Amino acid sequence: MVMPANTSIPWRAGNARLVDQSGLLLGAHVAHAGLIVAWAGAMTLIELANYDPSQPMYGQGLILLPNLARLGLGLGPNGDVINTYPYFVIGALHLISSAFLGAGGLFHVFKGPRKLEEKFSFFGYRWDDANQMTNIIGFHLILLGIGAFLLVAKAIAFGGLYDPAIHTMRLVTNPTLNPTTIFGYLFGTEGRFWLASVDNLEDVVGGHIWVGLLCILGGIWHLRTEPFQWAKNLFVWSGEAYLSYSIGAVSLMAFIAVLFVSVNTTVFPAEFFGPTLVLKFDRFPVFISRDGALTSRVWLANAHFWLGFFFLQGHLFHALRAAGYSFSEGRVIASTRGQVS
User: Fold this and answer.
1) Spans of the chain below 70 pLDDT
2) Counting C-beta atoms within 10 Å of the first and last residue's C-beta, which end of the chain has fewer, N or C?
3) Cα–Cα nearest to 59, from 261, 258, 273, 264
4) What is the separation, in whole angstroms, between the first and last Cα of the chain?
């Protein structure tokens, strides 16, 4: 079943206007990636221009430099930043690469086919084509797995990571591969803070190895198989449904990040992010440091919480619409589940 083009969507609705034009939608996604990368590059350079090495990093309103520092970039003994040149290089590379992404987005909008399936059948798709949708999931999982292994490579071979337990950089040469330990965090047997209970770099890197391996194997499985019939019948196969699934997952990751940022000092060292946080309920829930200071950890935890909250609302809104719910009538007016080609 091919969904009809919706010509009544206003320009301010963003990508919803491109739901049936896969080439233009690809251009929009590439351009969005360019904007994100440009922000990362520009903010890195802005933070660097205002960074004072004589003051604690966590007390200067920084959000990107602490994340670069925890990777061990530019650090000396005791976690002191002795060389900010790597931060400049990373910011500049992000700005340069954002220009290429922006150019790619413009190319797909103005020069590429409006629908990929017209000229490039391998890349084309319809939202109700369950086989192609699972192929797209497969490609994404493989890329996520490669990203996890890049962190592993940095930890074991390319300079290592900053270890707050010994206040210096080190290579993680013996990552934990024992599945009982790694999956013990997932099932709550390794500490009181679930995944955020991890307290050593060996487990952190070992967890990334397992995640990378499972993502790549899952991606290959999705590329080589079609969805089972029960899955075809269970899910809604439409652009809005995939949007709801995606932002629901982003919301979950944001809430997990809140937990990690708030209580974990191995992945988020206190030297760069400040002391751990406690949850306080005033008019709204807010995460504050134990000494009341406004630190990078406070900013990150609260920003992730509220972003996760609003992404959750977006997930519910789009999931209801995708399921055929009419907000004007207050009921489901048409069943959309299981409509696949």
Assistant:
1) 1-14, 283, 338, 341
2) N
3) 273
4) 6
Distances, alpha carbon 303 to alpha carbons 59, 262, 276, 296, in Å: 16, 12, 16, 11
What the block records as the tokens of 58 is 């966590």
Q: How crowded is residue 93: how many other Cβ atoms within 10 Å of its Cβ?
A: 14
What pLDDT is recorded for position 161? Answer: 94
Q: Among residues 315, 309, 314, which one has the least CA distance to residue 287?
A: 309
For residues 120 and 23, is the Cβ–Cβ distance under 8 A? no
* Chain position carrying tokens 């504050």: 288
pLDDT at 198: 95
Closest CA to 82 of 74, 71, 93, 90: 74
| Helices and strands (DSSP H and E) totals, the chain | 10, 6
Placement of tokens 């954002």 in the chain: 98
Q: What is the pLDDT of residue 6?
A: 47
**What is residue 2's predicted lDDT score, i.e. its pLDDT?**
39
Per-residue confidence (pLDDT) for residue 105, from 0 to 100: 93
Model confidence pTM above 0.85: yes
Could you tell me which of 215, 227, 218 has the C-alpha nearest to residue 131?
A: 227
> Which stretches does DSSP call E strand in the chain?
161-163, 168-170, 277-281, 285-289, 325-326, 331-332
* Res 73: pLDDT: 93
SS3 letters across 257-283:
HHHHHHHCCCCCCHHHHCCCEEEEECC
